[in-house]
Amino acid sequence: MGIVGGSAELNTGARIPLIGLGTAAITQNEEEIIAAVTAALQVGYRHFDTARLYRSEHALGKALNSAFQSGLVSREDVFVTTKLKNTEHDDPVAAIKDSLMNMQLEYVDLFLIHWPIKLRAEIPLAPVKEEDFLPLDIKSTWQAMEQCMEMGLTKAIGVSNFSSKKIEDLLNYAKIPPAVDQVEMHPQWQQKKLRDYCNKHSIHVSAWSPLGAPNTPWGSNEVIDNPLILEIAQKHGKTRAQVILRWGIEQGVSVLPKSYNTGRITENFQIFDWSLTPDDHDMISKLEQRKLLRGDNFVNSTTSPYKTVEELWDGEI
Fold first, then answer.
1. What's the rounded Cα separation, in Å, for the pair 154 and 109?
2. Which residues are catalytic?
3. Nearest Cα to 23, choosing from 62, 52, 49, 58?
4. Which residues of the chain have pLDDT under 50?
5. What are the DSSP calls for 153-171, one per residue?
């Protein structure tokens, strides 16, 4: 299964690098984020994923602009993604302008709707109060996302955490189709139905938490500690993370591992000069499936547009 140039072509004609650095900051300070991004650039990463919610836009921008000024990379070499917060559906244009100001950039390469949820107040990783949900109108949000692209503020637009059904609904009115759906994906949540749907409609899939988000409040170590992954890693003389990330790019998706450890940042990038075997893929395809971040905090029986977790994912759970 060949990986050509370490990138995939989007439906805009642009190319997205198949491995990017996730920059969600839970406990990290600005200096740690800058150090991680700088290390990643030196290793060879050219794809960086942030979001309004992640608290990392400022630091990412500082690291990138320092690299531009030093001549390490040019702006055209780097693919930058950010996302619309759940509280900003009323004005995506203002939101992306704020993101660009935070990062000291003239444009991003990809701007995503972070969740199909509209909130009055942002409460990450905690139950959302009933009074904080607002009526959701993805059509008007998408029209404003299209305006962001038409204004040159972003090269491409897309979605995150959207099911096949939600993308199908979007395609019914979108003038500009989404270029990407960024979703949880790893060997224990393989998203085959969604990937097949997106492939049919020329929508690229990016995998957040491609290692299962070990050591985070929402993730689990069970993906990286899976005995089969360890067995395959030992067979190839690779790390467990390298096996998981290689599996992801061999599915045709881009992977966005997050690390603030220079050694792991380096190891995670070393996935392009070897391959998994058909037998490896066959065994991984039979792993039991379990979604880690179900989005239960976005569900209630009164004010949320989704009364159950199954409604949030349209049965893809």
1. 5
2. 54
3. 49
4. 1-4
5. SBS-EEEES--HHHHHHHH
Cα gap 299→170, rounded to integer Å: 21
Residue 133: strand pairing partners = 119
- Report the relative pairing of strands 21-22 and 47-49 from DSSP bridges: parallel
Q: How many helices (H) and strands (E) does the chain have?
A: 11, 10
Closest CA relative to residue 111, chosen from 37, 176, 194: 176
Residues 193-250 pLDDT 10s: 999 999 999 999 999 999 987 677 767 789 999 999 999 999 999 999 999 999 999 9
Q: How far apart are CA 95 and CA 179, in angstroms?
A: 19
What are the CA-CA distances from residue 132 to residues 95, 117, 296, 303 (Å)? 19, 11, 15, 8
Q: What are phi and psi of 311, to 5 degrees?
A: -65, -40
How is residue 221 annotated by DSSP?
A: S
Structure tokens at 245: 């990330």
Nearest in space to 55 (alpha carbons), one of 31, 78, 35, 30: 30
